[in-house]
Specification:
Radius of gyration: 28 Å
Strand order of the largest sheet: 2-1-9-8-5
Structural class: mainly beta
Distance between the termini: 22 Å
Shape: elongated
Number of strands: 30
């Protein structure tokens, strides 16, 4: 877990060497103090050391103090090949955040470095008598080819979305990730009401975060994907930062015991509606409604439902093609809750191809109420929803989910950081 951040402004600038400043006077390292200077004070060692070139971006920065404690660290990053449109130098201080050990003598950066940049580290330490020393180190990081970098390809949710309490955070990357732990730890999630959660990988390109239980309703959540400098695979680094800000809305949870032919919907803990339904006939696996914890994924006011999209092409037994209204998806195996005015057995028998049939009035109400990430708990059938069918991620118990996490530790969304390191090997 990341510790407290130590930051501050120092007053030395590196000009051809490491600058050491004691009290209010500054001298270049190796030179005698000027008039009024004091040769005593804590010693500071910064790594990477001053003048180093082509540092790997996921190298941890360290400030080690002998004879005192770290009081301030500031890091500036300036791209080697760019300036802003007004001619001023672009600088970024993302990497400034760091953690100190218990006695305050070692500071380590929390995040990685920008590739192809000049990095300036300003460090200040103080001894028990109040004497301060300030040191500056300047080095450069190795550049990364534009076509050989990791980036975020897509996400659910996106900024501005209002979602249900079960909503996972789903990140799709634009290339396979080998160093999953480093990438996982580069994504920090912070919520107004903190929860414990963890990541699982559905594939080498897709990572999914879910809370241990559900999100508390009526709150804001922020996802900071600090991919800059993270090593996805050998020689492939991130160049970008991505922020997603979404809102968890009201809590809508639906429950359905299939043999009862009804769905009960509660909103913020209060019963809102009982909906007569007709589910799958259960004659074979395909037309059996799945039992388990589903999440609503998307919704349509009208939709063409074609069994060819789930592996039953035209001309095959069981093929269908229907125009339906007020459809809400609950899995990737073709399950929707939707209007079925042709079904005269709604509320009394299960006659569908696996979907949850409703009257037009009830289906429209459910469609209008639904947010992405609402919870539907279904019981009473002999087909279990697979954990990776749609967003069936709560089908894994919390213990199983945590066991499948690369870090093996919970990520608490309280702003305290991620469970492990984003860095590669030390210098």
């Amino acid at each position: 877990m990341k510790g407290r951040a130590v930051r501050g402004v120092v007053h030395g600038l590196a000009v051809g060497g490491t600058v050491v400043c004691m009290a209010t006077s500054c001298t270049l390292a190796g030179q005698a103090p000027g008039p009024g200077g004091d040769e005593h004070g804590p010693e500071i060692v910064i790594t990477p050391e001053n003048g180093t070139d082509d540092v790997v971006p996921n190298t941890p920065m360290r400030v080690v103090v002998d004879g005192g404690a770290v009081s301030d660290v500031r890091v500036e990053q300036r791209p080697l090949d760019s300036t802003s449109k007004d001619g001023t130098e672009e600088r970024d201080e993302t990497a400034s955040r760091g953690s100190v050990d218990k006695d305050g003598s070692v500071w380590v950066s929390d995040w990685n470095l920008q590739p192809g940049a000049e990095i300036t580290v300003y460090a200040t330490a103080e001894d028990p008598g109040g004497q301060e020393t300030e040191v500056v180190s300047v080095f450069t990081t190795v550049d990364v080819e534009e076509e050989e970098h990791l980036s975020l390809d897509s996400s659910f949710p996106v900024t501005g979305d209002v979602v249900g309490v079960g909503m996972p955070v789903i990140i799709d990357f634009d290339r396979p990730v080998e160093n999953k732990e480093q990438v996982e730890n580069s994504i920090e999630i912070v919520s107004e009401h903190p929860v414990s959660g963890a990541w699982n990988w559905v594939s080498d390109e897709m990572a999914v975060f879910r809370p241990q239980e559900y999100w508390e309703p009526h709150q804001n959540v922020r996802v900071d994907a600090r991919l800059t400098g993270v090593e996805a695979s050998e020689g492939v680094y991130g160049l970008d930062e991505h922020t997603i800000e979404f809102e968890v809305g009201r809590e809508l949870i639906s429950t359905m015991h299939v043999p009862d032919h009804e769905m009960k919907v509660s909103i913020d803990g209060e019963h809102a509606r009982t909906i007569p339904v007709s589910n799958g006939t259960g004659q074979r696996d395909f037309n059996t409604t799945t039992s388990g914890i589903h999440l609503t994924m998307e919704k349509y006011s009208s939709l063409v439902m074609d069994s060819a999209t789930v592996g039953i092409p035209e001309g095959s037994p069981g093929h269908y093609r229907l125009d339906v209204d007020w459809a809400v998806r609950t899995s990737n195996s073709g399950e929707f809750a939707h209007a079925a005015p042709w079904n005269g057995r709604i509320g009394s028998a299960d006659t569908s191809n696996g979907c949850t049939n409703m009257s037009v009035e009830d289906a429209r109400w459910f469609h209008d109420q639904s947010l992405m990430g609402d919870v539907l708990k279904t019981t009473g059938t002999d087909r279990e929803l697979e954990w990776d069918n749609g967003w069936g991620y709560y089908q894994r118990s919390w213990e199983e989910w945590l066991d499948h996490s690369i870090t093996g530790a919970p990520h608490v969304t309280d702003g305290s950081g991620t469970p492990g390191s984003v860095h590669g090997e030390d210098l």
